[in-house]
Amino acid sequence: MTQTLFTNISGLVTPGVGAQRGAAMRDLTVIPDAALLVRDGVIRWVGPRAEAPRHVPEHDLGGVAVVPGLTDPHTHAVWAGERLADFEARISGVPYEEILARGGGIRSSMRATGAAGVDELVALARPRLRALRDSGATTTEVKSGYGLDFGAERRMLQAVRVLQAEFQLVPTLLIHVPPTESRAEYVQAVCHDLIPGVAHDGLATAVDVFTEREAFTVEETRAILQAAKAHGLQTKLHADQFHAIGGTELACELGALSVDHLEASGPAQIAALAASNTVATILPGVTLHLGLPAAPGRALIDAGAAVAVGTDLNPGSSPVFSAGLALALAVRLCRLTPAEALTACTVNAAAALGLSDRGALAPGQRAHFLALHSADWRDLPYTLGANPVRNVFIGGTPV
Length: 399
Ligand code: FE
Description:
Bound molecules: fe (iii) ion
Helix content: 25-40%
CATH superfamily of the largest domain: Metal-dependent hydrolases
CATH class of the largest domain: Alpha Beta
Strand order of the largest sheet: 5-6-7-8-9-10-11-12
Shape: globular
Number of strands: 15
Strand content: 15-25%
Number of domains: 2
CATH topology of the largest domain: TIM Barrel
Structural class: alpha/beta
CATH architecture of the largest domain: Alpha-Beta Barrel
Number of helices: 15
């Protein structure tokens, strides 16, 4: 048994345990001059320092604020190749269709990723995951989805499995880009070959589908998510990014963990999310990078939904290597309050991955927490372009 009492915390700040919805997202507990007792990687006690258990080895945090470790619930952190020429072209006004026609765009990421071996994918993803962790992400979801074929999809997930030795990762199988021909056969093969194999080998805990006019239809998505459920996997969706074609309603109907993007969600989709246990995950890095409309974060919370925030780290639409930056952008671009943004990036982001054992600083929760540089936790949502996180603790151990 190893135990440590973390002391000299100017303010310990935490949402409640488990997903928080609507106005409850603003209910933070703030304990001035706090202490935190960790035993065997789990939080055992939290409270004012004056009331802390005695005769326990102490770790003095130096008078700064402590918040829960963040969860990044949506990344595509495994990819090969780069999209720097695409970025320059887009900024210069070249339409995406022309970038695709030149051999760029998502198809270039798929070619490069499909050609890479597991070791190469691991080496490419490692510094990205380090950057996310340094920014405060103690748990990170990573999707496949750039595979040209099922072998490449599995190699992406195998790379995540290798990296799980170094990071707290949650792997998701993403069905991302439909083939240009034999679509029905492809969906059948996803349901009867890829998903059963991935489930059998424990390579993913959830299946995600990109439901969109240019990607998979609602009926294709339904078949894929039902196959996922039949094989014991959780479900989530990329939906309403450009058009609200019914993906959000389907996800709520099927009890998906989360629906992600939601930039094109209207009142019907917001109402469906507010009436469900499905987490609404918004991705403000895409809004910043592509200059597109933001997801209705404010309206979702006002309607009573549970909102989470992710980076959507990917080479094309969100080169955001910081969970803290995603939190700060959600405040500016999606009009979350600082308190709501902290809840969105902690307990709600964990709930979007089906996890209820992290994201709050309370007895029984995993001891994933952040010591900031500042004595005031609001420097976390406030700071842009510098890292407000001084130390990251995972299971009570500094990284
Ligand atoms: Fe995504």
